[in-house]
Amino acid sequence: MLSFLQNFGKRKPSSQPILTRSDSLDSAMLSTTNDSVSKADKDSTPATSTADTSSIAFETTPKPRERPERSRSLRPSRSNISSYNENVLSGSAKHGYRKKGVDTASRAVSGETLVDGTTDSPTSFLHQTTQGLNQGWSLGSLPGDNLNMSVKTEDRVTRRKSTRLSVFEFASSVVEQTKTVLGKRGRETTQTPVMKQEMGQSAVTLNAETPSFEGPVTKRLRLANGFEDSPSLSPLRATRKPSIRPVKRWLSQGLYVGQDPDFDPRLTTAKNKLKKANTKRVTSQRRSVLPMPMFAGQRNLETGRNFKLPFDVFSPLPPGQPKPDEWKKTHKNVFIGDAAAVWRKSRFEASRCVCTLESGCDHSCLNRHMFYECDDTNCNVGQDLCTNRSFAGLKQRHKKGGKYNIGVEVIKTADRGYGVRSNRTFEPHQIIVEYTGEIITQDECDDRMENRYKDNECFYLMEFDQRMILDATRGSIARFINHSCEPNCEMIKMTVAGKPRMALFAGENGIMTGEELTYDYNFNPYSVKNVQQCRCGAPTCRGVLGPKPKEIKDALKSLTTGGKRKLQQAIEDGIQTVTKKRKINIPTGVRNALSNVKAQTTGTLATKRTARGAEPDADKKDSVKMSLRRSKSTSMLEKSSSKTKTAVNTYSRRRSTATLALKEEAVEEDGDDDHPMSRRSSVKAAANSVRKNVVRTVKRGGRGAAGGRSGKSIRVIEDA
Ligand SMILES: C[S@@+](CC[C@H](N)C(=O)[O-])C[C@H]1O[C@@H](n2cnc3c(N)ncnc32)[C@H](O)[C@@H]1O
User: Fold this and answer.
1) Counting atoms of ligand 1 from 1, which one is nearest the CA of 479?
2) Which of 150, 166, 593, 606 has a C-alpha 20 to 30 A away from that of 120?
């Protein structure tokens, strides 16, 4: 049988038999033909090759009929024909091009010319064939044996080989072709590492034990492992992966099923892993599924949770947005040149706030009112209860990293150059971004203006503290924040661990995702000719960067014609009224009048304060100090601008010496049980009066060709 298979159905002689299911059927079907031939040829000289077989077969049969002789080269080579015939499938095929005289019926499966002249009916033959197909494969028992169709090796008779393909042979060839196309790589991709490993081992075994096998590896593996009659024996099925039906667990267990309870969607996977590794979890208290709504409600009632609407949304800009040329960044204030040496430590000693554990450090915290950030050295309630640690919170946010935590990004505006927008929400008064840069002395600033920045369009300079300048040319992203007459943020200077720092805070209404961040520059162009048109688009836009000239005039009028009370009110409203005079070209006469009124008023208030002696009137004290400091600042600016003619954009929201003194008194007197709160509220009132933005922006006046260019400005913080 083996030798029969070897000689039959193979294009070229092979030393190894191919044991395939198709072969068994094929051989079963075709053996009748061969046997009939062998019967006829039994007595003739045995052939030694398939070619001989053909010759024998054709020699013993007469020519079928006369046909026009075709050239051999034109005749299709039979060994190359791989056509598919339904007759072959049905088993009733009459193979090939027959010679006349050959009993075609005997070639059919249904013939009665089975080996040894057995008289099995076609039905029983088919039955046996089916049995043979269903049988397992093994070397010991081949299906052909059951069919009693074995052919002894010594009786090997060369027979004419059918050039048509049987159905199984055809299928095998298709699979083989497919595999050839897929190639090794294709097979590898369909095999799991475990499969490969198993197959590798089995292949070794197979090679060692059954070297005569050929065919797909999977089949050999099955044969070797004894998985007989397995459906995966089919080469087509062998390459197919078992499909795993996905189970929608979330349908029954909720959307968060399987998610780690500590998972933070704002972090990257790596950071989440790190966080998980670093946190000790109390696994016993964790539940793998969400609590039922009633339990969730109960939990909320017990533990409490701030309700937030809308939930924080992160909305980064789509890629490909125009970005500013890379600027030198620094996220910390850096002293440059002599600044560090000149810098003095804060004159004011840190004092503890008087907040209680019951109330926590809330909006009534004195440190908060004084624009001092609480820390472990000056806070009475500790980190957990304190809400006056904005800069510390910002540091933590930035430490976490990611665009969401940074929360801002640069955008290109239509008509104001670059700007900054939020890509998440911010609560009212929440810190957004710190304004950092290089801290330089006034001399250094002048030098930079004359040399380094002489061709610049924009300047990012602010008067900072102790007459230092904060230059954000190398600084944080906050330098790109534009002005608006109806801003949604405010720039605030606070003392953090004894050092002043500036940051942008959300305004009263908080910030929504995608809003452009703005604050009021109170831009002072220094000269009317340098007034810049404002394009903020607010309904109440003043039209220029800075106060309207009319407002300035009105303020001046109130200063000159109003009484002391009115003047004081004007002063408390902010020093804009004083600085505004430099935004427009105020007539010298008016200016002199203003100076006189200012001096008189200051003197009066100061006298009053002295007369009151030890009894502090917080508001007035504050006003006095403000006016004094204001005068000082003004002169500083005048001097500065007259000397260097540099433009300064100033901002200040700063406590005064007086308010600090009051605060200390209040802390001391807080122990007095009679009126502790009244004292404190007077301090608060004093502090509140100081919380006025004092922002001045002065356009750079003519300094040669570069100095006279419009649009050049620097912003300087001014101590109030
Ligand atoms: C500190 S820079 C702000 C960032 C600037 N837009 C940029 O592209 O670098 C200040 C300059 O921005 C422009 N600017 C800011 N707000 C403006 C506004 N509301 N209207 C017109 N120009 C504005 C002015 O030219 C101003 O001198």
Assistant:
1) 1
2) 166
Radius of gyration, CA atoms only, the chain: 48
Please tell me if the CB atom of residue 136 comes closer than 6 angstroms to any atom of ligand 1.
no
- For residue 247, is pLDDT > 70? yes
Mean of the per-residue pLDDT values of the chain = 60
User: What is the whole-number distance in angstroms between the Cα of residue 474 and the centre of ligand 1?
Assistant: 17
Distance CA 22, CA 3 (A): 16
Contacts of 707 (CB under 8 A, 6+ apart): 454, 645, 700, 701
Task: Calculate how far, in angstroms, residue 416's C-alpha sits from the geometric centre of ligand 1.
Answer: 5
Q: How many CA atoms lie within 13 A of 55 on its CB side?
A: 9
- Lowest mean pLDDT: which of 53-57, 218-222, 268-272, 325-329? 53-57
d(CA 398, CA 80): 74
**Distance, CA of 258 to CA of 619 (rounded, Å):** 61
Q: How confident is the model at residue 645 (pLDDT cuts 50, 70, 90)?
A: very low
- The finding on whether 442 has its CB within 6 A of some atom of ligand 1 is no
Does the model's ipTM exceed the 0.90 cut? yes
Least confident span in 2-11, 77-86, 180-189? 2-11
Paired sense of beta strands 408-412 and 431-435, if any: unpaired
pLDDT grade, residue 429 (50/70/90)? very high
Q: Helix, strand, coil % (nearest 5) of the chain?
A: 45, 10, 50
Q: What atom of ligand 1 comes closest to residue 534's alpha carbon?
A: 20
CA-wise closest residue to 478 among 234, 701, 715: 715
pLDDT tens sequence across 351-382? 788 888 888 888 888 888 889 999 988 888 88
CA nearest ligand 1 atom 11, residue:
458
Residue 413 Cα to ligand 1 midpoint, Å, equals: 10
Q: Hey, where are the domains in the chain?
A: 2-64+76-171, 198-241, 334-717
Residue 249 in tokens: 């667990």
Structure tokens that stand for 354 in this block: 């008087």
Task: Give, for ligand 1, the residue of 459, 473, 483 to mutate: max count of ligand atoms closer than 8 Å to Cβ.
Answer: 483
State the closest ligand 1 atom to the C-alpha of 460, by its place in the atom list counted from 1. 1
Q: Is 536 in the pocket of ligand 1 (CB under 6 A)?
A: yes
d(CA 389, CA 158): 100
For the residues 282-304, what does the mean pLDDT come to? 64
491 CB under 6 A from ligand 1?
no
> Which of 545, 698, 700 for a ligand 1 pocket mutation test, highest count of atoms within 8 Å of Cβ?
545
Residue 435 Cβ < 6 Å to ligand 1: no
CATH architecture for segment(s) 334-717: Beta Complex (2.170)
Task: Report which ligand 1 atom has the smallest distance to the Cα of 459.
Answer: 1
Q: For atom 25 of ligand 1, which residue has the closest CA?
A: 711
pTM above 0.80, yes or no: no
Token readout for 623 is: 């006003």
Cβ–Cβ under 8 Å, residues 27 and 128: no
Residue 414 CA to ligand 1 center (angstroms) comes to 11
Does the structure show a pLDDT above 70 at 141? no
Which tens digit of pLDDT belongs to each residue from 616-631?
333 333 332 322 232 2
User: How many angstroms is it from 372 CA to the middle of ligand 1?
Assistant: 30
Largest separation between any pair of C-alpha atoms in the chain = 150
**Distances 594 to 553, 571, 630 between C-alpha atoms, Å:** 11, 13, 14
How far apart, in whole angstroms, are the C-alpha atoms of residue 458 and residue 480? Answer: 10
Taking alpha carbons only, the member of 51, 13, 12, 5 closest to residue 29 is 5
